[in-house]
Amino acid sequence: MSNVKPNLGMESTSAFLESYFGTKVTELQLITKGETSQAYTFRHQDDDYVIRFNHFEDGFLRDSYAFETLTAYGIPVPRIIDINEFNNMFFAISERVHGNTLDAYKPDQIEFVIPSLVDVLMKLRSANVDSTRGYGPIGHSGDGLYQSWTEHLEAFFCEKQSGFWYGWTELFEDTFLEKRVFDVIQPRMMKYATYCNSVREFVHGDLSLDNALSDGQSLTGIIDWGNARYGDGLYDVSWFHFWTPRFNLPKRFLQCCEAQGIEVPHFEERILCHTYSQGLDALRFYAKTGRLDAYTQVRDHLLSL
Predict the structure, then answer these.
(1) pTM for the full model?
(2) Burial status of residue 86 (CB atoms within 10 A of its CB: 0-12, 13-18, 19 or more)
């Protein structure tokens, strides 16, 4: 059950790109990171690009939408050159953002650019989304798919799903995913979801060390907007903290808001709601990909809250 991303080899990718551009590409290199997309960097003529292959198109469309929507606010989103189909899957070609993902740096180097990350979060919360409607994942129309954050969470974990999570409840029978854990954590999550319904901002949805790039001085790019949605911007703060607690991003973000005279009502309750939802999603992902050790660590953390 671990084949969640395509597996297109170097030779096949090179041949495809040569056919696509009509001339050879150079410096083709595999990007080993990424949970659902197979990705390569390459050079064509004098420009650097990234190509990604995925079984689903929606994430690429959200990448493009994020570029069109957020660059005006100074958020460094790579430009998408093309999105199309190839060999029963989808591909996206984008301009390459130079720098390394933050997980390639030492902790003290990451600490140096955390203020830049907080700045991106503040710019995200200021992005004007009034011309759109809805909460949750951004659809093809540019609107969210649900009427509230509560409805989004209910739909996100309901039994009937399409795309990547089609048939996910079968994991309770076929893998080590434990329904008893969901039965304990899910009501806690929904209890705090009501505190998130009054906030509607542009949310990255997967803000982590491997989706933020830096040249060592500042952030040069925020990539992989496939989980972009409308809702509570604290979701991004919580997500980063969930996977990288040592930098205490919630405290840093709250301090920044206070310094600017911005009130953040029900901060702890909202963070807790997002922590529960992110943890439950991680549990089913780790079950689907057969990663028991990671599953156990997340499960024990959720039950301890």
Answers:
(1) 0.92
(2) middle
